[in-house]
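User: I'm curious what two different proteins look like when written out as structure tokens. Can you demonstrate?

Assistant: Sure. I'll show them one after the other, since each token string lines up with its own sequence. Here's the first protein:
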Amino acid sequence: MRHRTFRQMLDFRRILASVLCTAALAATPAWGIGTLTSPRLVPSAGGDAVTAADQTAYVANASLDRVAVISQTLDISYIPVGRTPRFIAMTSRGFITSNTGDNTVSVQTSGSTAVSVAIGGSGPILSNGNTAWVLRSDGAIVRIDVATLTFTSFDSGLRAPVGHALNGAGNRLYVADASGEVRVFDITASNPAQAMESFRLPGPLAAVVAGGDPRLYVLTDAAGGAFIELDLATNTTRTFGLSGNLQGARVLRNTGSMLMAGFSNGLAFLDLATHNATFLRTGEVRALSSNSQSGLAFAVTRDTLYAIDDRTMEIQSVAVSPDSSDVTFLYKPCTAYVAGPVTSLVHVPCGDLGVGGIRAHALWWVPDGKESGWGMNIAHHGSKLFATWFTYDANGQPTWLVMSDTNDVGRNGYEGALYRTTGPAFSAASFDPSKVTRTAVGNMSVQVYSVNQLDMNATVDGATIKKTLGRQVFAAPVPYCEAGLAPGPLPIYQDLWWNPAESGWGLNIAHQGNILFITWFTYDTDGKAVWFVGSDIEKTGNGTYSGTLYKTFGPPITASPWDPSKVTRMPVGSATLTFNDDDHGTFAYTVSGVSGSKSITREVFASPMTRCR
């Protein structure tokens, strides 16, 4: 049997790659994307590439040499452009197309006309309003002034370019080559052809996007697919590998909070705050899009549109017209436009980014294992959080604090009092809840940004502690959790569990794949708070999980910096959990020679309860 220690389970390198729970595709939670409508099909506006702005969509049709204009009221008109328009983008004057049939670009100059300009080649287009940049297939970069319809060009020196990106400030152009080279150009310089920086990366490369300055990200097919971060301030690179037998890297998108990549057989995601990497098996991903106002992202395969909420990682899908090739989205009317021989219009319910409702129902830690050895379990029911903080006292002994009730302060923010408790020893023949005492030691606030990131701000015995935490991913698939979900076809036991007759101790369960990560908060023989961890409680049968329990020791809660190398651990026994159904089970344990068995049930402290699938 595979066996992992507590430290190994908290080693970021071993848990980076994971799988999104495909059961989320069937879920329709009370909050989030909502139900996608069946698409409205518009055969007369079919095409190969699509863009949108100001309540209007523009679909470039390569076979008819025209752009179909779809108004908010679904009136359709057509604007002739150059031969074989394959790429389209928006500028301050309207659309611009790059035309492979005659090596021109066509710029919309009025509501019904476009002017074509020969630029000696064609390729994908970027635009920052008044200026468009075309990356020609021969490696030349063409700058087009859309007001004057004049252009200049320079040679990037790359002969197999796969993509280009503009940085946020609009003064740097990043160009990636299939060979594995990335070059950075200063497009404000008098001679931009002299690259500022050049990087050699493991290829073949597939795409490049800008990150927050001074970073950029590259998608590579090397080693089964990986994201590579380039930091121009330090000239360093960082690789985030993927698992799951992904093949044929295609496209890359930065939504602001995550990277989304399309492969020939699936979607991959990298949370930029926590570096959690996940993937979802699909068909060939042909295009990606995102919208910062709604927090929604989109992927299109040959015949399916996927809508992703990048805060909650809820995913919904709907069938669209076959041979679809591109997608864009207009915020309010909340419509996705999917280009293909027949254009599909899908209504995707969208709200304002930041409205409350993100479930913090998970095990949390400092990202990248920077403070491996302590963590926080949060159960999230209704608008209440129950947080158990597993840490160490001034002597390095394991202890825990609890925030058992919170106030919802709006926009995914919560706050409440922190308590330290004492109680009967775990080894007591019977647990008397009347002997549990609790003492207020401070308070804590939690701001949830997504299912992968939150900030905690706590005061403990007069000391202030601030941390940014990420959801801990340790196995695949990772469940999707939402308030009001019905139980799924496979039980997911992730939650806070207790024995109602023995209030004062409990068991937190994080459930991913066939692994339970349990933290048992209880009391030692001296009555002080203590916790034991089972970081690899594996499935051994139907509804049965078993593994080793550990006791750990580490730096005090107030240590700054907090040094994970000073964490030690020792095995102290074992645990077996047997579940009768989704909500009831038995917890059997042996710790330091003391054995016991407890009936446990989910602790539901607010409505609606949260479940995971």
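Here's a second, unrelated protein for contrast:
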Amino acid sequence: MPCENEWRIFGPPGTGKTTWLARQIRHAAARYSPDNVLAASFTKVAALELRGRDLPIPSDRVGTLHSICYHALGGHLPIAETKPWIESWNEAQPGFALSGATSESDVDEPFGDERVGEREGDRLLRLANVYRARLLPEEHWPMMAVRAFWRRWCDWKTEHGLIDFTDMIERALQEIPVAPGDPRVGCFDEVQDFTALELSVCRQWAGHMEYVLLVGDDDQSIFSFKGCDARAFLEPPIPDERKIPLKQSYRVPAVIHRLASRWISGVSRRERKIYQPRDADGEVTRMPDDVAWGNAEAVVDRLLVDYDRYDDTASAHKFFLLTSCAYMLRDLQDALRQAGVPFHNPFRRKRRDWNPLWSGGRDRLSILDRLMAYLRPLSTIWGRDARMWTVEDVQAWLPLLRSEGVLQRGAKMAVARMDKETRERTVTLDELEQWFDPPALAASMQGSVTWLLGHALSDAAQKLRYPAQILKRFGGRVLREPPKVVIGTIHSTKGAECDEAWLFPDLSPSGAEEWEQSVEGRDAIIRQFYVGMTRARERLVLCAPNTRNCVEL
């Protein structure tokens, strides 16, 4: 329905949407009072970023739309998509069992022909949620299997008094006509990723507000496979005077901007907008035919040419390796490991294959945490922070070792049982002599990684080889810095930026089918690669296609 107090703010890549929105929130809070402003986003990351801007509004007035709706509904209803309830569902409905995977896996595989760990129940629930997100009445759902699943799912939720994630929005639309706290101003971020259902809630609430700001970029609407549709942001029409373009990019340089602008012009329906590059030329490099994701060693060899130019980690030069689907990253992961190049994906921490050096903190130690604890006495690794092992250090790395020929009888148990209060205490030489055989103690105190690998349990030795290879190639200080290489799907890095984006043009077979046969699918893929291009601040590297299922960038 038309919304006479709706303003649409279009922010292309790198134009500072969050900064602009935070400024408007401050102005609204000053004019109407902090309690009269509501700010909602699509993702937790964006909500946290807004909260980090020191906004003058109460913390419960900033969050994801889902969290705001959930708390408006009382905040006490148990959620169906949590581990205990999924186990209960699987026991009751084994034919429609769910894997319990997070929605992140869907984000990473938009057109994938495989969804890692997905079960039939996951697929049916995902499709039901897409239909719900698009406000499609159940009688018009095209698949009988989805309807059959959905009826059992609804009966089970009712029996146990549960709600699912989409219920949070549906019930808010039905039961919460006015935004929580009856604010006078609503500010909604990442609106291009809202579904028609979610935008219906926003616009219903807007009817009771002085004005509402919808901030987003239809060109970056890339979650159509989850039910999102850029048209929900662009419709209904509003006067041009209530459209505000953020014109200046502070990220994308001229050469990359020209390529990206030409590419995105292929979308069938979009808001045309003034968009200017930052004051720098930038660079677009096209790789030869052998530099494709299926020839990962060639990719890594080329990457290392640039990587070595920025060997000083203080320069923080960041590389993104981006594909359309997660399965295309497997060979690249293996090649990076073999070459001893550290990589991660800080935007998808739950994907352990993308974060092999993940640090788990005090209670969940990673293999890197354990190795670094072992190396703690070495100044070549730790510099001024080098010191003798504490009890906590030994508790971290001792479990990596085989007992035979290394440890005295009962050593592991004795170390594990040491009180928490003593963890920060430096171990004594007498204690070490009680735990280790003399040759093992001498070798370990020298910090020999070769010795550690040779005496580690087989599973631990396998995990240690990758950080050991990094140590051999780059030295220990690299292990103390965030990796400069980020691998992931384009979807996983949306909203982030890098110095160099290495973009692979391949599609999965189903993605290629979408590209050829569907205007909607083609538009989604154009937007997806536009997002990939515009992550780069300095250089865009266009890699060669691995198969004929690809786009021509």
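A detail about the second structure: The longest helix spans residues 144-160.
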